[in-house]
Design goal:
Length: 81
Amino acid sequence: MDEKGVFTQINALVAEEHELRAKRAAGEVDPETELERLRHVEESLDQCWDLLRRREALRDAGLDPDEAKAAAVGQVEGYIQ
C-alpha cells in the first residue's frame, strides 16, 4: 500500500474512532462493544503508522518503499515508545 492508501486508511480509522466515542456518549452503543472495537481501531492505527515509518526507512536507505509490509499487531503493540 502506498502512502496515499495508508493515509486514507488512517483517516477512515480516526473517523470510526470518533463515531464510536460519540455513540457511546449518546448511549447508542454498549460500552463493552465500544471498548473492544476501539482496541481494534487503535491497533490498526498503530499498524498504519508503523507501515509509514517502514516505507520511509526503506526510501531513506535507497530501497523500494513498496516492499514495506505491515507488521503483525503483536509486534507493533510490543514496541517501546
